[in-house]
Specification:
The structure is a homodimer. By secondary structure, chain A is of the alpha+beta class. Chain A folds into two domains: 2-261, L-amino peptidase D-ALA esterase/amidase (4-Layer Sandwich); 269-384, Ubiquitin-like (UB roll) (Roll). Helices cover 32% and strands 23% of the residues of chain A. The first copy, chain A, has ten helices and 15 strands. Chain A has helices at 51-60, 80-98, 119-132, 137-146, 197-209, 241-261, 280-291, 294-301, 307-315, 377-384; strands at residues 9-14, 27-32, 38-43, 67-71, 105-109, 155-160, 167-173, 186-191, 226-231, 269-277, 327-330, 333-337, 340-341, 354-360, 366-373. In chain A, the strands form three sheets. The first copy, chain A, has a six-stranded mixed β-sheet. In chain A, strands 3-9-8-7-6 form a five-stranded mixed β-sheet, with helices on both faces. The longest helix of chain A has 21 residues, at 241-261. Chain A starts with 8 loop residues before the first strand and ends with a helix. Residues 180-184 of chain A have low confidence and may be disordered. Chains A and B meet through helix 2, helix 8, helix 9, strand 13 and helix 10 of A and helix 2, helix 8, helix 9, strand 13 and helix 10 of B. Chains A, B: Its EC number is 2.3.1.35, 2.3.1.1. Chains A, B: This is Arginine biosynthesis bifunctional protein ArgJ. Chains A, B: The record marks 110-111 as: Involved in the stabilization of negative charge on the oxyanion by the formation of the oxyanion hole. Chains A, B: Its main location: cytoplasm.
């Protein structure tokens, strides 16, 4: 399954020695053997962009990719011109061993910000990865595993045409510093469908806008976020744009749920839906405010249906709110109507791992859902000891 | 000292039985005996406003206050028309026992959102507080203590004319759900200076804009934030507006530092200064983004000078950032220049309770400082168990 599910792709995951601890693989390579090399990408909106993001943005202007090389063990962000040169050398070495141009090779990095990567180990790892390339599911899984940092499990997904004529598959990583800024993690999705560059770009933007862009773990937008779509055309089948976009959305949604379930310190998987807003954009502003509120997230960690904090959070957002028509429902139990208590809050049982929060603004037809997780002791522990 | 430091004021703090646990006082009364009753107020920008905020905003249109009654044990927010009636009855009872009009009585409440207050206990407490009014420092301290919720100490401050001819004093409460929305807590400041309503209003807005409005504990904006200034004119002295504003700013800054030092779960007092921004407004956007970033706050809890998270946070803000001119200094040690590492991060010793973060955007002359605290296990513990 995963990134090698579609015909025309090979992958590898090897240990290059970039991570100080453990023996997990830390370098992944995904290669598109064609016949087509159509590609599209979306990147972080952070103004401080990592070197691999700056490089890959340039590469994607050609709307074509032969390969993606990804590493954990270091973000190569805030590393100056030397860090950019490291990325460039990585793409050049990959191009050399694959027999293509460096401009056909995207680079993704993840890990600590501000440290140079050990470039000799990295380049040796590229050689090893090229030698280890395979088309089977094990190769895809090794690649999906090599990009993990504080993630505890690999995230893979696949979908495709109802008649099996083409396939979409991919992997994702990301557990912290996740907030929606186009994309919020490293994701590679492949397909053997025949796509032109315009379809690939539109489908990727449409699919990420309602999946990765609706996942907010901690409100922090990474310097490295990248989502790439590579299309080999190896199936020989050209799907309808709507059908392909829906399949791509399904894969991205699967991967986003996988990221949510493995987020740093997660004990609750939370979906916040705002309805009745003046517009979908307003609903999204309200939902984002709720999922970023530390008081809401700590209350839900404590299995406490503290709807007052939810009402305060949406009231402080930029969405238009009228208390007279504001209601809050938690795990299906209406707790607040017209911004006042109704019913018995103890009936909302939050002891399980899934929590749904529904805020109805009662103003219009706008709606949006954002996924998040709780703010737990484990989140604090993990992030107070990460770089030391 | 405190709210009774200035001539013309009496205060009381009594136990009305509004708080379920403990034996701390929970109802405070501050009375202005004149001869003047000039007043000004600033209130939360949250669209979901507590009943006492809606009431006090109406009252302050008259720019005059004879008394303020404050309670802990319940925010009286999201309580509907019945909750508003409770606030109105509280003001009426206070006016009755003081012999003034209800329109001269502001009301402030703090505590859990969404629960009605026990109105009979509250009204009986008003009677008790009126009987207990005193002009000495002990009375001021009892009032300052009665408004505390998760606060562990009372916060009081005083300042005044160099020649002692007039005085400014006050108290503040607030430990969580604090983010700058004009004011972010309950604060009562009194003065015996002679002020007209215009001066009182301008001075209060100017002083709060650079003190309480620059304190952000958890990014959550309360439904109840209120800052009130009452001027008795009892000194008979009319200060210059600039001199009075500076004295008021000093008192507000003292109180804001007291709130920071007693914030929920605090182990580090953090000041984030952004310089070199396009404008002061841009600097403020950048500083607010850094103090609201969970990854920055958890790193500082861990005494980790993780400047990469700081750079990422300001880069994701709405302030204009150019990585080529971005530098980060932590506790006086330059760690990042041109968005790349310089020097030895281990030289930035964050083991103490005070941390200064300086971000120079290198673009212009805009500057702003915002105070915050770290995100600790104690913050999570306190806020995951608050209402249950």
């Amino acid at each position: 399954m995963s990134v090698t599910a579609a015909a025309g792709f090979r992958a590898a995951g090897v240990r290059a020695g970039l991570r100080a601890h453990g023996d997990r693989p830390d370098l992944a390579l995904v290669v598109n053997d064609g016949p087509s090399t159509t590609a599209a990408g979306v990147f972080t909106r952070n103004q401080v962009k990592a070197a691999p993001v700056l490089w890959s943005q340039q590469v994607l202007r050609e709307q074509s990719l032969r390969a993606v090389v990804l590493n954990s063990g270091g973000a190569n962000a805030c590393t100056g011109p030397d860090g950019f040169a490291d990325t460039h050398h990585t793409a050049e070495r990959t191009a050399e061993v694959l027999g293509c141009g460096a401009i056909e090779v995207a680079v993704c990095s993840t890990g600590l910000i501000g440290e140079r990567l050990p470039i000799d180990s990295l380049l040796a790892g590229v050689d090893d990865a090229a030698a280890a390339l395979g088309a089977g599911p094990e190769a895809g899984t090794r690649a999906a595993t090599a990009v993990l940092t504080t993630d505890t499990v690999d995230k893979q997904a696949r979908h495709g045409a109802a008649d099996g004529s083409w396939t979409v598959g991919g992997f994702a990583k990301g557990a912290g510093m996740m907030a929606p800024s186009l994309a919020t993690m490293l994701v590679v999705v492949t397909t053997d469908a025949v796509l032109d560059a315009g379809v690939a770009d539109r489908a990727l933007r449409a699919a990420t806008a309602v999946t990765f862009d609706r996942l907010d773990i901690d409100g922090s937008t990474s310097t490295n976020d990248t989502v790439l779509l590579l299309a080999s055309g190896a199936s020989g089948v050209t799907p309808g744009e709507a059908e392909f976009t829906e399949s791509l959305r399904t894969v991205c949604a699967d991967l986003a749920r996988g990221l949510q379930a493995d987020a740093e310190g997660v004990t609750k998987r939370i979906a916040v839906t705002v309805t009745g807003a003046d517009s979908d954009a307003d609903a999204l502003l309200g939902a984002r405010a709720v999922v970023r509120d530390s008081l809401v997230k700590t209350a839900l960690f404590g299995s406490d249906p503290n709807w007052g904090r939810i009402a305060a959070s949406v009231g402080a957002s930029e969405a238009r709110v009228d208390p007279a028509s504001l209601s809050v429902t938690v795990n299906g139990v209406l707790l607040c109507a017209a911004a006042a208590a109704v019913g018995d809050r103890s009936k909302a049982d939050l002891s399980g791992p899934e929590i749904t929060v529904e805020v109805d603004l009662g103003l219009g037809a706008g709606t949006a859902t954002v996924l998040t997780t709780d703010l737990s002791h484990a989140y604090v522990e993990e992030n107070s000891a990460y770089s030391t």
